[in-house]
Recover the amino acids of this structure.
């Protein structure tokens, strides 16, 4: 009986030590970026979301992402053009009166790749993003800061964004694919 108790205590000690060594961080929006780009005839429409939050979990030696969740306030969109921003807030695009957030939750994580659910405009679709995890380094105050860069593409049509006026000379105003570039930074716990 005593041997069984010792084994159980030893296993609990191992499990608790592994969890204590694993790092995680809350996303600091002051040093993070959520950017999108959409092809148009003259190049790309580029925009940012200014309000978002999230958490990133790392493995024991802080070399891989093991979980990730991010929530974006879609009303915080900015393209540096106020009329376009108002258009994007409307029902043809972000529909912020009805859908205030976009949420990504990772489900499967391999080296350099995250697959998860993106919930946006009332629809949930599985998407895959590549990721690069930077080395955790001390900031000016000595706190260890970690960063993860995510990149990928989604189809705007998958989320019910079908508005796409025809151009006079032929063709459509927008492409279907929306590029995502997200850099999440925070202080390791």
């Amino acid at each position: 009986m005593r041997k069984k108790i010792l084994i159980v205590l030893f296993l609990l000690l191992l499990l608790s030590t592994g969890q204590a060594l694993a790092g995680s961080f809350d996303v600091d929006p002051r040093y993070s970026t959520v950017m999108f780009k959409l092809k148009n005839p003259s190049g790309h429409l580029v925009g940012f979301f200014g309000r978002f939050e999230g958490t990133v979990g790392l493995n024991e030696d802080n070399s891989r992402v093991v979980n990730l969740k991010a929530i974006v306030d879609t009303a915080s969109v900015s393209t540096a053009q106020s009329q376009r921003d108002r258009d994007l807030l409307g029902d043809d695009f972000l529909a912020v009166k009805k859908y205030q957030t976009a949420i990504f939750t990772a489900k499967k994580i391999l080296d350099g790749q995250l697959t998860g659910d993106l919930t946006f405009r009332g629809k949930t679709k599985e998407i895959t993003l590549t990721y690069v995890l930077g080395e955790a380094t001390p900031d000016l105050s000595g706190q260890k800061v970690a960063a993860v860069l995510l990149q990928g593409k989604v189809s705007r049509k998958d989320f019910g964004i079908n508005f796409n006026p025809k151009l006079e000379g032929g063709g459509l105003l927008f492409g279907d694919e929306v590029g995502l570039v997200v850099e999440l930074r925070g202080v390791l716990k």
User: Anything to note?
Assistant: Residues 1-21 have pLDDT under 50 and may be disordered. The chain has one domain: 22-187.
